[in-house]
């Protein structure tokens, strides 16, 4: 390979930001937080469109977000601290840093689990059936995750193994040394891989939902299968130290992905046999679902998001 070509490929690598925090007067503006917030906003907007297309009422998703988002943030942090407790507890560590969410560290499994609890509470209060609203929300979580992963780029964290591929990620010398590598080492940009995978998975799940008119939680099951299929192989590229990192030769999160994929696939197969089609009502009082002003069951085509 000629020196000119090597230099050209090196110029194509992905640089990391010089800083992940900016100050607006005394107020710190953190890239990690901005990525998370933007992902949430986009997901809520898309979920609202999908929910209305399924026969829900405008404003329902914002009301559910008041419950789901705080629960999800707490769950994500609890999962991260529980699976990486050595960073925060024990000799030489300050337990109070477990509360420093802005430094990074939100476990997706905990965020989804407790976020779903929040949605369940909100749905019960509003008289909304749980499975239809989960089917409306689930694909948009992929978009939120795709955007939120850029927070790892700002924080220069959770990158993959060393590589010299043209799209390799550059990190600061101190970050490379901290990871046990020489300055100038470039790495797999796993944040980018997951972002692209999630966006492709979103398009696939929405397309299948439109084509097959899925209901009764099957869209949510597809979300789990699509996400875990990507998370499994991307997790194998990562080199960050986590507790429970080697269970039977696989990282803990890889096992989690495998188990959840199997459970979601089993539920999808069961629900397809037991409940083909979609719900005729998304409300617990049995009101007929109305999509775009047309009663459910009419031969209408949903919009691009549903």
Number of strands: 6
Gyration radius, in Å:
21 Å
Count, helices: 10
> Strands across the major sheet, in which order?
1-2
Estimated helix fraction: 55-70%
Strand content: 5-15%
* Low-confidence region ranges: 5-9, 293-306
Can you tell me about this structure?
With 306 residues, this protein is mainly alpha-helical. The protein has one domain (20-278). It is 56% helix and 5% strand. The chain has a two-stranded antiparallel ribbon. Strands 3-4 form a two-stranded antiparallel ribbon. Strand 5 (290-291) and strand 6 form a beta hairpin. The longest helix has 24 residues, at 60-83. The chain is globular and about 60 Å long. The termini are far apart. The model is unreliable at 5-9 and 293-306 (pLDDT under 50).
Q: Would you summarize the structure shown here?
A:
The protein is mainly alpha-helical. It is built from ten helices and six strands.
How would you summarize the topology of this molecule?
Layout: H1 3-10, E1 21-24, E2 27-30, H2 31-53, H3 60-83, H4 108-126, H5 130-148, H6 150-155, E3 169-170, H7 173-178, E4 186-187, H8 190-212, H9 218-237, H10 252-274, E5 290-291, E6 294-295
Antiparallel strand pairs: 1-2, 3-4, 5-6
Give structural attributes.
two-stranded antiparallel ribbon; 306 residues; globular; mainly alpha; single chain; disordered C terminus; 6 strands; 10 helices
